[in-house]
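How it folds:
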Amino acid sequence: MNRFSHFLAIDWSGAKGARHKGIALAIADAKGGPPRLIERDRAWSREDVLAFLRHDLPPDTLAGMDLGMSLPFTDCGAFFPGWKRSPPDLKSLWSLIDTLCAGDPHLEAGGALRHPEVARYFRHGRGEEGDLFHAPDAASREGRFRLAEHTQRAMGCRPVSNFNLVGAAQVGKSSLTGMRLLHRLDGALPVWPVDPLPRAGSVLVEIYTALASLEALPAHRGRKIRDFSLLDEALRAIGSDPTGKTGTVDDHSSDALLTAAWLRNVGEDGALWTPRGLTRQIARTEGWTFGAR
């Protein structure tokens, strides 16, 4: 394809508060060289990231955010089966979540989780599940999954349900706060696959940093990268120049750095933009994870 000039990876956070050490942005140049962190004088806020995506993104950037852009829909024919206000599609879901959370600062998602009907579909704590957390007749106790997440599992990853709010690996809160950001982009940046891939310009996709790690370090599956020597090993494995740094690195930064380089390595692969299983209906309801195939 050769249409992108930069590759941006965003490690996202759903935590409460204004600024978050868990948010990291890294960018890789199509011309080569190691990926680099985009750093500021203080920790990133979610509003900072929204402003960066709207106003400061380099031209022709493939930007990936580590979150779930949607909730499961296909398994039950609805995001919130049995609720009359359940949205019909992904963009309507983003709008609903942002509306329910209008009183929450810093793009937090408490309002949605306090809603008496919406709360029924989430796992809120250990032993504290909404009565609709599981799909009817579900064999698994892990909750509901999108088709893209079933595809990730077939590739060797272990995604967590976007309805789960419990544990270090939970993605529910980061997904809900991310939906607020996606809604507020308001067309300033196409979001694939709910929006088609434009012929030129930048585009935002959902990423799962575990896919990059799985490709770069298959023998270290599930292991977080917390030192530069291992990070550089992973970067070399996917054809990137290493950072050349030594010492420790936090796992949010390493996830972003490795995934930015991975996006540069695979982002021009036309097959990843037409994965098996991605239909128009899936695109408009569940979205997709870039690289899941």
